[in-house]
Hints:
The chain is of the alpha+beta class. It has 8 helices and 12 strands. Strands 6, 7, 8, 9 and 10 form a 5-stranded mixed sheet that branches.
Amino acid sequence: xxxxxxxxxxxxxxxxxxxxxxxxxxAVTSDGNKYIPFGGIDSLYETAYKKAISELNERAAWFxxxxxxxxxxxxxxxxxxxxxxxxxxxxxxxEVIERKAFHYFIKLIMNNKIDEIYSNFHIQxxxxxxxxxxxxxxxxGELWITFAFDLGRxxxxxxxxxxxxxxxxxDDAIDECIMVNHSIEKYLINHSNKQSTQSMSQEELxxxxxxxxxxxxxxxxxxxxxxxxYYENVKTKNIESLLTLNVTRYIPKFLSPTNRYVYLSVxxxxxxxxxxxxxx
Length: 280
């Protein structure tokens, strides 16, 4: 797939419980226009804006690499951007841990391993959200991964958060859950819209919708919401070895003034395919 040029939509600012800044990056390609959504959310507009610009760079670098070899980097897992190089590296590693933790959690849910969830995740209710948190031990210290489910919705949305302390990971997960719910509602209203059918995030969004509709998920979450457990009893997990690569060169030139670094973290078994097919 060849990329001929890039277009950038105007940024939208939504005021939910917090401020959300969002937009669409459009890649004009040999395979048609590809819409790549990005956004950021925070209590402060300035911070939400900075998060959105970082995600814009992350998504742009990912899509550039995706256009060359779609099967090697089929999604944005492991990509992260920041104005600070060390924070970009750290966020990239944390992104992989978060995704692996989520797949592990969903596997337990779908196999009805409720006891294993109790021993591996700190469970609590906060307002309308059911929260599952797990600590990981990294080189930079303890990392908390949290998943937030809004049980008050017909299609249950989920948000993920990752921070060095439990409270902030919960806040991030709830923020993302609100964003995901907004995206689900928007998709269901505009699913016949041409832009939405060509969005690069549609496959991931549809997977969240299908998950949120699952009666097995709903039944399991209802069981787990009855009783909270204590985080002191939750097992801390060590992370696997990862390779983190600087992929900043794949940011399109028009984004250079934003001064972001982009890094990609991958399991060691995937390192050779990245190194052999990209200029790293």
